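User: My advisor, Dr. K., asked me to get a structural model of this assembly before our group meeting. I'm new to this, so sorry if the format is off. These are the inputs:
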Amino acid sequence: MSDRTRSPVVIIGGGPAGMMAGLLFARAGVQTLVLEKHADFLRDFRGDTVHPSTLNLFDELGLLEALLAREHDKISAVGAVIGGREYRIADFSYLPGRAPFIAMMPQWHFLNFVADAARRFPSFTLRMEAEAVGLIEGTKRIEGVRLANGEALEARLVIAADGRSSRMRAAAALPLQDLGAPIDVLWFRVPKARTADNRTQGYINRGEMIVTIDRGDYFQCARVIEKGAADRVRAAGIERFRDDVAAPVPSLSANIGAIADWGDVKLLTVSLDRLLRWHRPGLLAIGDAAHAMSPVGGVGINLAIQDAVAAANILATELAAGGDPDPLLHRIRTRRMLAVRTIQAVQRAIHRNVIGSAMRNDKPRAPAVIQLLQAIPALQALPAWLLGLGIQREHVHSPDASRRA
Ligand SMILES: Cc1cc2nc3c(=O)[nH]c(=O)nc-3n(C[C@H](O)[C@H](O)[C@H](O)COP(=O)(O)OP(=O)(O)OC[C@H]3O[C@@H](n4cnc5c(N)ncnc54)[C@H](O)[C@@H]3O)c2cc1C
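Assistant: The format is fine. Below is the predicted structure of the whole assembly, which you can bring to the meeting.
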């Protein structure tokens, strides 16, 4: 292969991890190519929750105002309706920073924003409808990727940010630990009238757990089911499905008829896993490709972005100077594992203790800890901190090449 310092960093996947890594490496003056297999970012049933940790990073990049100029809703506190009673769990107004709230922004708006911000740097290229199908293995390291159209692209470094079914991590034979998730999710839409405030809410009642994400004129709804139970739910018929959803969430009943048939209900299989090693010489995995998260807490996008920031902090200066990234690659996993392990442990505990008991119980009661949060509202700062800012929070330290020029 030719002089590899002239080849770009090739990032596989234009999700939150890949686009943020693309923005930061290009900002550091590193030739960066992001490959996304779809023609656009407009896929549904993706996370919408841009947490304070991510908003603070955009503030550090001087992009917060521009990001918040895109269509979004603000959520300053999150709660749940348990057994028909409303509880407040996390109050983000206690958090430091200029954005103490969750910005509810459809993921395609968010990714388009990051792509626009990255395109300002001449070293950034985004190729849509470019699917990576394999890796080019050299004698000592991975030297590039093969695309579905037969092209072979050389890379100084391949970053696998291709999500939880990552083909690149499989091609690199990185060892995966499956932690198991006892739930799956059925997703569907129910129309609603627009309201001044965002009505995103979680409901636990009558043996059901349902989340309704307010997207203006419709709710994007998630019904949590036992893993593997989708066929059983379908066999009971669409009418029964509509009844089971509307009973615990009466506000959905007026328009529940919009779910006409099973074509309107999508199954998302939930995974919880993590790689035991995130790199090989010439390749690094980040985001869901390194650790698939449960939808619980809506933290997946935000953790994926933190990985991208950590990767750029550790690698960008070396890459911009034409150096060898390989000796540094192990440091990204070392840096990020505390956050991944802790959040996955909390998600597993919620799968087992909160969701499991909600789905076994017709008349659920709020656990003692949630009762305590009502009695002493200031304690709502703690879950807000964990959810909103997370653990081992990253800050942008990678260079901005345009400032040097
Ligand atoms: C049902 C569900 C609901 C969720 N809700 C939330 C939420 O509300 N908030 C939240 O923060 N997180 C949520 N998550 C998790 C969140 O979606 C992920 O954690 C996050 O998107 C991970 O980002 P990523 O960039 O690592 O991967 P992804 O978002 O999966 O992006 C990977 C990208 O790679 C592309 N790609 C894949 N293979 C190839 C290839 N071979 N070549 C080129 N491109 C490829 C894909 O098209 C995709 O665009 C949810 C997850 C699920 C399953």
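One thing worth pointing out at the meeting: The radius of gyration is 22 Å.

User: Perfect, thanks a lot.
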